[in-house]
Amino acid sequence: MRAVVQRVLSSSVTVDENVVGNVQKGLMVLLGVTHDDDIKDVEYMVEKIVNLRIFEDENDKMNLSLLDIKGELLVVSQFTLYGDCRKGRRPNFTEAAKPDKAIPLYEEFINKAKEHGIKVEKGQFGAHMAVDIVNDGPVTILLDSKKNF
């Protein structure tokens, strides 16, 4: 499982001119699922993301987590995080999980995040989405549940 985590002042996702997810201060997460991901990957990623200390404390040091600041979380499915561009000019997406595998893990990620008592919004899996992000910092973190980076 891979994620691009962005610290945001606000973020929203729109499908067919309808806002389907909207958050204020917190994190916007682009989430990709691969073939061998399972519940352990979900649990690792949720715990890592909600506890990442990437918000400033009173001394302007990145020392607070999403939970500490009572921030909000927007999660958007992003199969292109598994695009392989090493050969040729067109990305190869064979490492991205098919929807029958990816959707349950994406939904489980959202459910596990909600268990932390934070506001969690989401995009619409498989839809063409317009994502609006006001990145705060900017702060952008890459995560991989297999710890490839």
Automatic annotation (TrEMBL):
Main localization of the protein described in the UniProt heading: cytoplasm
Xref: InterPro entries: Daa-tRNA_deacyls_DTD, DTD-like_sf
SUPFAM superfamilies, per database record: DTD-like
One Pfam family hit: Tyr_Deacylase
EC number: 3.1.1.96, 3.1.1.-
GO cellular component: cytoplasm
Transmembrane segments annotated in the record for this chain: none
Catalyses which reaction(s): a D-aminoacyl-tRNA + H2O = a tRNA + a D-alpha-amino acid + H(+); glycyl-tRNA(Ala) + H2O = tRNA(Ala) + glycine + H(+)
Family: Belongs to the DTD family.
Subunit structure: Homodimer.
Protein name: D-aminoacyl-tRNA deacylase
